[in-house]
Amino acid sequence: MAAAEGIYSGAARPASGMLTVRLSALMFMQFFVWGAGAVTLGLVMQTVGIGDLIANAFSVGPIASIVGSFLLGMAATRFLSPKMLMVILHLVGGVLLFILPGFINPEGGSTFVWLLLCYMILYMPTVGLANTIALKSFGERVDRFPFVRAFGTIGWIAAGLIIGWAGLSASPEIFRVAAVVSLALGFYSLTLPNVEADAPQGGSIVRQVLCVEAFGLLKQRSFLIFVTCATLISIPLAMYYAYASPYVGAAGIENVGGTLAIGQMSELVFMFSMPFLYRRFGVKPLLLVGMAAWAIRYALFAIGDGGAGLWAVYLGVALHGICYDFFFVAGAIYTQTIAAPKGVNAQAQGMLTLFTYGVGMLLGSQIGGILYAQLPANPTIADWQGMWVAPAIAAALIALIFQFSFRDNSRGGMQP
């Protein structure tokens, strides 16, 4: 524990209350943008007659994570401040979001997918950048990170509720809602703390541009196993993001956006408990519980229906808090503790995004597309049930691999 706390000996002093408010606003807008455009995208595409492109649309995010996280989220943070990258990426991205709805139709479906890829190359690096700005700003007090990250969850919830209440769950206009907030976030980012660009300990300029120091963290056995399992668990994760909305719609639930927001509401409960749980149990139990929750969620989806089994649909959605917080939020803090001694915080967060939202979700989107192709043109809830069996088994197997191979019980530098 002492060793972990010592990691931040040269960091900033504990953050002020106003800084917490500023970073909370950052997280709210960051995830509002994502939630508005992603929560019901599968339903939108199925409604307008391009359901066969859902797998491709949800594959561009992972591809963008690989390209964008490396070029903009890892290499660029060596030379530009995370703050200025946030400004540029969200302003340009907001313009693209305004354009997207005009191509969500059978005639422009392919163009829509390509434009979505361009947008996601801009957006995905900002996930790691937002984490980096918050974590670096807090210095030693990384225990405050789950609190401000909770406002990202609130932003996602707000997006889902607004989309649902406005009757836009199946409308291409979801992207224009996201565009307004993206532009606002771009301008707001000008006011963010001036955290420094990464400063690796040494090496040639080529090594620094290629982020050799960040990838070198994988030499640590525990971190390598964590990244490997994080990549693998992102494969079934991709299927939830791509196909949960049409599945919930098939169950006879009309307010799809609002229903999926239940998952983010459950995030809040667990997010605020993260500092205590991380200090009390360490990283391994939290990561393991998170992976096990994915297996349970998909098992519930496999038995859920629009009748007596509707409870399983709602419970499966509500498990999102455990699924996401216990793995991805805990994982971001764990990555920070591993990267801090090397001075590659932003690069390491970008690398984690690359492997999870990139490699893992790309594989998951394509595998999900293969499974979806086996369903009838207008699948019923019974058709959907069989699709969730494979990801349930996969998540359970990954949890077992993690249980018997991961040995690090770090508390992530959190302080009482």
TrEMBL record:
<feature type="transmembrane region" description="Helical">
    <location>
        <begin position="285"/>
        <end position="304"/>
    </location>
</feature>
<feature type="transmembrane region" description="Helical">
    <location>
        <begin position="111"/>
        <end position="135"/>
    </location>
</feature>
<keyword id="KW-0812">Transmembrane</keyword>
<dbReference type="GO" id="GO:0015213">
    <property type="term" value="F:uridine transmembrane transporter activity"/>
</dbReference>
<feature type="transmembrane region" description="Helical">
    <location>
        <begin position="53"/>
        <end position="72"/>
    </location>
</feature>
<keyword id="KW-0472">Membrane</keyword>
<protein>
    <submittedName>
        <fullName>Nucleoside transporter</fullName>
    </submittedName>
</protein>
<dbReference type="InterPro" id="IPR036259">
    <property type="entry name" value="MFS_trans_sf"/>
</dbReference>
<keyword id="KW-1133">Transmembrane helix</keyword>
<dbReference type="GO" id="GO:0005886">
    <property type="term" value="C:plasma membrane"/>
</dbReference>
<keyword id="KW-1003">Cell membrane</keyword>
<feature type="transmembrane region" description="Helical">
    <location>
        <begin position="23"/>
        <end position="47"/>
    </location>
</feature>
<dbReference type="GO" id="GO:0015212">
    <property type="term" value="F:cytidine transmembrane transporter activity"/>
</dbReference>
<feature type="transmembrane region" description="Helical">
    <location>
        <begin position="174"/>
        <end position="192"/>
    </location>
</feature>
<feature type="transmembrane region" description="Helical">
    <location>
        <begin position="354"/>
        <end position="375"/>
    </location>
</feature>
<feature type="transmembrane region" description="Helical">
    <location>
        <begin position="310"/>
        <end position="334"/>
    </location>
</feature>
<feature type="domain" description="Major facilitator superfamily (MFS) profile">
    <location>
        <begin position="174"/>
        <end position="416"/>
    </location>
</feature>
<feature type="transmembrane region" description="Helical">
    <location>
        <begin position="84"/>
        <end position="105"/>
    </location>
</feature>
<feature type="transmembrane region" description="Helical">
    <location>
        <begin position="223"/>
        <end position="244"/>
    </location>
</feature>
<keyword id="KW-0813">Transport</keyword>
<feature type="transmembrane region" description="Helical">
    <location>
        <begin position="256"/>
        <end position="278"/>
    </location>
</feature>
<feature type="transmembrane region" description="Helical">
    <location>
        <begin position="387"/>
        <end position="406"/>
    </location>
</feature>
<dbReference type="InterPro" id="IPR004740">
    <property type="entry name" value="Nuc_H_symport"/>
</dbReference>
<feature type="transmembrane region" description="Helical">
    <location>
        <begin position="147"/>
        <end position="168"/>
    </location>
</feature>
<dbReference type="Pfam" id="PF03825">
    <property type="entry name" value="Nuc_H_symport"/>
</dbReference>
<dbReference type="InterPro" id="IPR020846">
    <property type="entry name" value="MFS_dom"/>
</dbReference>
